[in-house]
Fold:
Amino acid sequence: MSFWSKIFKSNATESNSAADKETNETSSQLTDDEKQQIKSQIKDLTEQLNDNDSESVASNKQKATILTQLGQNYQELGNVDDAIDAYEKSLKLNEDFGPAFDGLLKLYDSKRQKAAYAKNNDEIQKWLNKGDELTALSKKIMRSK
Amino acid sequence: MVVIQWIINNILTQAAILISLIAMLGLILQGKKIGAVISGTLKTLLGFEVLSAGSTIIQQSLAYFAVIFQHGFHTKGIVPSIEAINGQAMNKLGLGNSIALTLLGIFIVNIIIARFTKWKYVFLTGQALLWMATMTVIGGHFAGLKGFPLILMGSIIGGIFAIAMPALAQPIVRKITGSNAIALGHFCTIGYLVEAGVAWLVRDRKVDQHVTNIKERTDSWEHVKLPKSMSFLQDNSLSIMVVMVPLYIITAAFAGPYWSIKAAGGAAGGVNYIIYAFLQAIQFTVGVYVMLSGVRLMLGEIVPAFRGIAMKVVPNSVPALDCPVLFPYSPNAVIIGFITTTIGTVIGMFLSPLVGLAVILPGMTTNFFAGGTAGIFGNAIGGKRGAIVGGIAHGLFITLLPALLVGALSSVGFVNATATDVDTITAALLYLWVIAPAFHAFG
Structure:
């Protein structure tokens, strides 16, 4: 392998990012029963979310908690996109530090790594920018504390 | 030949044009469409000019402050502001060109080291890299380097710092975040390690000896309820104003109307000298605000290009991000770190003239971000006591280091300012204390 190709060509065997592997390992470690249990929890939480449609502040916090739990369940199943979606919605309703914030930080990085292996520049930028937004949110939350 | 010489003399020596060309190259390498390439290049050009304008405002205000401080307190009062240093280096000293190329060089050295070694850190905080490029170029300039050697050495030293600092902090960052997914990309890391070291020495040895994650700590500020409302100081402009306004007014009062008006150029527009000092403090704040807007505009196109390339070349990299990324893990320690660091910088301000160093005024923005992050380190390693004692030590450390640089900076023509981020200062001191003497000895 030449110097330049070594620099610009990533190793094909590395195609699974560490974070991605971590997610896959977590979900593959689950038994079918456990998976089924998580799926039924997801169903319950989604129903709770649909029932809880008031717009009050207390309700927003409740909804955020449910969305965070939903995100955690999706993350356990290895369903990264749905987990990100749930966490993002949760943070939108209740801007605070917690599992949604931590979860997003890790999942954005796993998405960024995946995009990097695929050499997809737009996706790399998308996930890096989302990471930047999270850092900006961190400053905003500290300011309101 | 004449044409090439003309291009080199008139175009490539202009920092604004050179840095725009670097941005253009980045945009082309990313495969952007022609419209995006043109708009990105022009934005970078505008950013540089905005930065220069901000730097001029800061310099005018600092020149006034230097005179009133000298006559008010009969000593030199130095404002720690990396923005002011960068602005003066870029414009007044004509080092903009070398800084722009060194910034590019640091990017490249960082990527190469991350690609070929086990240290996979890619430093993504663009602004911090600009400050590092600035300080290595200033250090090299002081050591008598010029042209290509100046840029090459700056790139290598800056690139090594860009890898080494996240790597050194990572064992503690892992304790804080509970994972290896992210690293810390902030050039105040040596200060954080100083705080962690002091915290470790004074820690309560009866508890938390084997914790691997700060969440497990029993002795931690995170279990204490703290009063709110200190955090407004993390707003850059507000925090600068809160310090600069009283500082300028008190200094003007000590200097008296004669010197205050003389410092203002004789007339001060017919305004009362105290009011004039107030307005100058605001001018300083405006200068920093304008400069940082320029930096953001200038780096807005270059940094994404670099990040895109870096991520493709080192897909398994660990991104080193700006310090607020750690705030969620230990928000109370941020407040404690800010308060204790500020106490340390105030003590340092009074102590430094006693040991023959210049008076370094406390810089509130650094105290918040660097102090806050240092607080997280102190709390993670040494619990409540560690965070307090370590924080004060951190405040003293970040006052001492800039003070050591003042003489060298004044000798190459900087007006009344010194740098802030301690890693960049360490890089500059490396030139001053190791590289420059080595050149003199062998050269």
